[in-house]
């Protein structure tokens, strides 16, 4: 069975004045255990809305979603989210950011130090573990956010245009690092992007979302394995 199952999900927003907008309409797809799955489509087609619903940050207007066969209902640490900007805490060092993630995951204080090292090595910031995020480049800050989120022990990592604010060179480095992180941590990833090159480079499978009315075109689901 799939890790994540999205079944006939829709989202209708009510705007000021009573007009409604169907941001997402009848979307269904699966994400399998251990894969990097990209949700690809043009700006405004509803990708972020789908991801926020999977994260439990918003409720669907119709349909349902299941993680490990359990229906998604509200936010939970089993679904870690990384946004385009700023998910690291500026008032905590790199080390403390990662330890905070572990605290949420119930890791005892005594064990946090050693385990933090593992995550900090994974994002290649050992030399900067006592630095504050504001002292680091955008790419490094994003690595801290990824490590802190992984330290929560999520069952699936949700990423919303995570490298969209970075320059091209940093973006490539981050994409390569991301692949090695997934190999090390065996986490399942659902990444939202409008960047087809990013999707092809990163993803085992790409789910195309069309612009209107935001339906996933199942017939266009394409598999990419080993690049
Ligand atoms: P994407 O991530 O593909 O760019 P979004 O999910 O952000 O698309 O948005 C899909 C559509 O829903 C857009 O037309 C957007 O303006 C609209 N939308 C998103 N969030 C809201 C909201 N909170 N209220 C009203 N409309 C929204
Ligand atoms: P890098 O040094 O890795 O090339 P920068 O720090 O120059 O990245 O970031 C590029 C742009 O994106 C800048 O305008 C910066 O303000 C913005 N930016 C990058 N990361 C973040 C972040 N986490 N929060 C807010 N803005 C960011």
List the helices and strands and how they pair.
Elements lengths: L3 E11 L5 E12 L4 E5 L6 H9 L6 E6 L2 E2 L7 E4 L11 H11 L4 H14 L15 H14 L4 E5 L7 H18 L2 E6 L2 H7 L2 E4 L13 E2 L4
Parallel strand pairs: 3-8, 3-9, 6-7, 7-8
Antiparallel strand pairs: 1-2, 1-4, 4-5, 9-10
The chain binds adenosine-5'-diphosphate (ADP) (2 copies).
One adenosine-5'-diphosphate binds next to helix 4.
Strand arrangement across the biggest beta sheet:
6-7-8-3-9-10
User: Which quaternary structure do these chains form?
Assistant: single chain
Q: Percentage of helical residues?
A: 25-40%
Report how far apart the termini are. 24 Å
Q: What number is the mean pLDDT?
A: 90
| Sheet with most strands | 6 strands, mixed
Q: State the shape.
A: globular
- Which ligands, by name, code or SMILES, are bound? adenosine-5'-diphosphate
| Run of helices and strands | EEEHEEEHHHEHEHEE
Kindly state the number of beta strands. 10
**Structural class computed from helices and strand pairing:** alpha/beta
Low-confidence stretches: none
Fraction of residues in β-strands: 25-35%
Number of helices: 6
The radius of gyration computed from the alpha-carbon positions, rounded to a whole number of angstroms, is 18 Å
Keywords: ATP-binding, Nucleotide-binding, Transport
GO molecular function, one term: ATP hydrolysis activity
Family: Belongs to the ABC transporter superfamily.
Protein name: Nitrate ABC transporter ATP-binding protein
